[in-house]
Write a structure and sequence with these properties.
This protein is an all-alpha fold. The chain is 55% helix and 0% strand. The longest helix has 18 residues.
Length: 168
């Protein structure tokens, strides 16, 4: 995201916050109000890491709005210091994680290992086959954890899949 896009996003989010308050008397002149908003935007922009995302900015500003609503008692705009403090407090560890790490993906082996240990239903590929072997190798489960599932499959005469998977 380039600087202009980022500043426009911050400006829009800030105006959403300030729109719920009355404009202070000393800022009733439109030029002064715009200068104040630009100053606050630059202040807020410094709080975010360079590789931030749109979702990170929106989420942080939403949380900052809630913090301001809770703490700010006046009907007029909060000060730039109050807004800056609210933004700083709204940056959680989850929101400051590296944006370049990409979207979160669940660890299916770990999830299914927990299900096996708990005796919950899992797909057959996690009971016998490469994924079962991999979970045992990684130490997520033991052969003893798989035994009840294997007994169920053999007792119900459920054969192992012999046909090759369909690859398109």
């Amino acid at each position: 995201m380039n600087y202009e896009t980022r500043m426009q996003l911050i400006r829009n989010e800030l105006m959403n916050i300030l729109g719920t308050y009355a404009i202070p008397k000393h800022l009733e002149d439109e030029k002064r109000a715009q200068a104040e908003v630009e100053g606050i935007c630059r202040l807020i922009n410094q709080k975010f890491p360079n590789d931030t995302s749109e979702d990170h900015i929106r989420g942080t500003m939403d949380r900052a709005m809630l913090k301001l609503k809770e703490a700010h008692k006046s009907r007029s705009w909060p000060t730039s210091a109050e807004i800056s403090a609210a933004v700083s407090k709204s940056m959680t560890s989850a929101s400051t994680r590296s944006v370049s790490s990409g979207p979160w993906k669940p660890d299916t082996l770990q999830l299914n290992a927990k299900r096996i240990i708990a005796g919950e239903p899992v797909g057959e590929m996690y009971i016998r086959g490469k994924l079962a072997d991999k979970m045992v190798e990684m130490g997520l489960i033991s052969d003893a954890h798989l035994q009840p599932y294997l007994e169920y499959l053999s007792a119900n005469n459920i054969p192992a899949r012999v046909d090759p998977p369909i690859i398109s």
